[in-house]
Amino acid sequence: MISVEEALNTLFALVNPLEVEIVPLREAAGRVLAHPVTAQRDQPPFPASSMDGYAISDSDYVTGRTLQVIGEAAAGTRFEGTVDQGQAVRIFTGAPVPEGATWVVVQEDVDATKDQITIRETSESNPYIRPAGTDFKTGKTLEAPQILTPQLIALLASMNISKVSVTRHPDVALISTGTELVMPGESPGPDQIIASNTFGLKAMLEAIGARVRVLPIAHDTIPALTTAIKLAKGSDLIITIGGASVGDHDLVGDVAETLGMERAFYKVAMRPGKPLMAGKLGNAAMIGLPGNPVSAMVCGVVFVQPVIRAMLGLGKTPLPHAKARIAQDLPENGPRAHYMRARIEDGQVTAFERQDSALLTVLAQANALLLRPPHDPALQTGAEVAFVPL
Question: Domain spanning 322-389 has what CATH number?
Fold first, then answer.
């Protein structure tokens, strides 16, 4: 067996960032920006009013002063003249501030007629003018790589960017194996169960940017597995679920090697998830996940998610760990890293009592994986531990 760290580094060696494609900004949300982007204009591109009111000279901002209203400025329509002392221009939020105006008095602080205003309140210290380039200036760079969140999409739009370079979606082929499996909605026989891992992993990987193809369930026979793996041709990553252990019906590794897979490792010193396999099949990386539902999902978090991120150009690093204090005593850990299903609440982490790798109900309640390193000593309540958020 190899350590989790060795297994992850070996997996990283099997993949590289994928090609770059150009997409319209409207289709770029959630994608990974591949190349830096530079702003094409200042924002705002002109001094702009941040309130509805009147644009005046700051020297006229005096209680009781009466000013002549000479025009109007609205968002998208500037006042073309110049504001001199004793004059005011009606102005609305977002409108360009006229030449000569250095202050915007808010409309609540004046008495107004059609042609005049009288300033009755001068307690404001804010001129309510946003200088040109307050937000950013031409040449501001948005660095890459990073995931394009809605906030960043809005920023790119304001930079006048209509298209962006992003990393191509990884194409993932997902193969559940096992004669005992049927798809949700089918009628299982007395000795069959529902294929749950397929759908949990599909949701997990698509949420971080992969395109997942769910292939037909492969029965535990050499012809069925051969057909299923051949159907995955053209994928960037092939993931099998189940059949990677050493039982008489665990044939995935042997069949994959017959088809040309170069095995990189088999078995990792962790629980759940010990019977993990990986290799390279043609141009595709291949990961054989354990069949137990929780084992497959935990390995998806610990190994597959970082691999997908590496393929997207986000770096070859493990998922970040956080720290919290435990809410209960924990016994010493054995020789394998233990990813315990747990909940974080009020800044404390509590491991579930039942850690069986078949219990999806426990995983569904968990919002963290509490990490116990190999041979970790017994811990008392309040000890600090690492965890991976779910």
Answer: 2.40.340.10
What is the predicted pLDDT for the residue at 179? 87
DSSP state of 136: B
CATH topology of domain 20-42+138-167: Molybdopterin biosynthesis moea protein, domain 2 (3.90.105)
Query: Which among 210, 279, 242 has a CA at the least distance from the CA of 10?
Result: 279
Q: How far apart are the first and last CA of the chain?
A: 26
Same CATH fold assignment for domains 20-42+138-167 and 322-389: no
**What does the pLDDT look like over 90-143, one tens digit per residue?**
999 999 999 999 999 999 999 998 899 999 999 999 999 999 999 999 999 999
Tens of pLDDT, residue by residue over 269-287, are: 999 999 999 999 999 999 9
The residues facing 55 across adjacent strands are: 89, 104
- Does the bond joining 272 to the residue before it have cis omega, within 30 degrees of 0? yes
Q: How many residues does the chain have?
A: 390
Residues 87, 89, 93, 99: is their CA dihedral positive or negative? negative
Q: Is the pTM of this model over 0.85?
A: yes
What is the per-residue pLDDT for 163?
97
- Long-range contacts of the stretch 320-325 (C-beta < 8 A, 24+): 320/388, 321/371, 321/386, 321/387, 321/388, 322/386, 322/387, 322/388, 322/389, 323/384, 323/385, 323/386, 323/387, 324/348, 324/349, 324/368, 324/384, 324/385, 324/387, 325/349, 325/382, 325/383, 325/384, 325/385
> Could you state, in order of their start, the residue ranges of all structural domains in the chain?
4-17+169-311, 20-42+138-167, 48-130, 322-389
What CATH code is assigned to 48-130?
2.170.190.11
Helix (H) or strand (E) holding 4: helix 4-13
What residues form DSSP beta bridges with 90?
54, 72
Checking if the pLDDT of 338 tops 90, the result is yes
Class of the CATH-defined domain 4-17+169-311: alpha beta
